[in-house]
Amino acid sequence: MPRKPKRPCRMTGCPNLTDRKSCYCRAHEKVMQRHYENFTRGYDQHARYGSAWRRIRDRHLAGHPLCEKCKEQGRYILATLVHHIRPLADGGTHDESNLMSLCVSCHERIHHRCAKE
């Protein structure tokens, strides 16, 4: 029985052909699976952040309405996110001293994310 023709790998710029179900070549299949596990599926945010966190976040934003990183640079941008200086996964708490008001771009910069990924 004849097989389907191979297709180009879905990874941008990859010249390899593949007949795998994932549409990625062997070299990129594991990379994309890790990306899916970490970013697309994410984690159960309700297990870590519940209604108590929403109250703490709202109270912190009311007391610190400007982005703290931008304010250091002389810019006054409204903060929309509250960042944990020491992450909860590393033993951080919801303490006022561990929280920082940030705009979206500063928060993304702290986590080394970029819009291209």
From the structure above, extract its key features.
117 residues; alpha+beta; 2 domains; two-stranded antiparallel sheet; two-stranded antiparallel ribbon; 5 helices; elongated
In short:
With 117 residues, the protein is of the alpha+beta class. The chain has helices at 26-40, 45-48, 51-63, 68-72, 104-110, and strands at 7-8, 17-18, 81-84, 99-102.
Question: How are the strands ordered across the major sheet?
Answer: 1-2
Biggest sheet character: 2 strands, antiparallel
Q: Give the number of domains.
A: 2
Please work out how many helical segments DSSP would assign: 5
SSE order, one letter for each helix or strand: EEHHHHEEH
Number of strands: 4
What assembly state would you assign to the polypeptide chains in this entry?
single chain
Radius of gyration: 21 Å
Structural class: alpha+beta
End-to-end distance, in Å?
Answer: 40 Å
Gross morphology is elongated
Percent helix, as a range, is: 25-40%
Describe what you observe in this structure.
By secondary structure, the chain is of the alpha+beta class. The protein has 2 domains: 10-40, no CATH class; 49-110, no CATH class. Helices cover 38% and strands 10% of the residues. It has helices at residues 26-40, 45-48, 51-63, 68-72, 104-110; strands spanning 7-8, 17-18, 81-84, 99-102. It has a two-stranded antiparallel ribbon with strand order 1-2. A two-stranded antiparallel ribbon has the order 3-4. It starts with 6 loop residues before the first strand and ends in a 7-residue tail after the last helix. The mean pLDDT is 85.
